[in-house]
Amino acid sequence: MADEELEAIRRQRMAELQTKHADASNNQQGEEAKQRETEMRNSILAQVLDQSARARLSNLALVKPEKANAVENYLIQMARFGKLGGKITESGLIEILEKVSQQTEKKTTVTFNRRKVMDSDDEDDY
């Protein structure tokens, strides 16, 4: 009886260890894939942008990571389709940033809802 229980516990423990090992390897593969993608993005951007434009984009990434990511995606897409003639200078990057800003610009509207409590204007009409 004790041998059967011991064997069941061993099998259960072995299954737990195997699932932990599989999860660890999946996490490691995911991290490696993410790292490869980051390296690929950086290499494409290094080919497309000159030094001053890369510096401006990295500064933008510190302040507004979403906007910098959108610009990076735009530049990578343009490079993949061959629409970029040469390296983009800082002034060219500024133009691209303005385009992206116009596309993602949020319009804010303010509306005033005035309450009409004991409005004396209605009474003056008589």
Describe the structure.
The protein is an all-alpha fold. 71% of the residues lie in helices and 0% in strands. It contains 4 helices and no strands. Helix 1 crosses helix 3 and helix 2 packs antiparallel against helix 3. The chain starts with a helix and ends in a 23-residue tail after the last helix.
Q: Please summarize the sheet with the most strands.
A: none
Inertia-based shape: flat
Q: Catalogue the unreliable spans.
A: none
What share of residues are in beta strands? Answer: under 5%
Q: Could you spell the SSE succession in H and E letters?
A: HHHH
Q: Please give the number of β-strands.
A: 0
Helix content: over 70%
Structural class: mainly alpha
Please outline what is shown here.
The protein has 4 helices and no strands.
Please describe the topology of this protein.
Elements: H1 2-48, H2 51-63, H3 65-80, H4 90-103
Key descriptive features of the protein:
126 residues
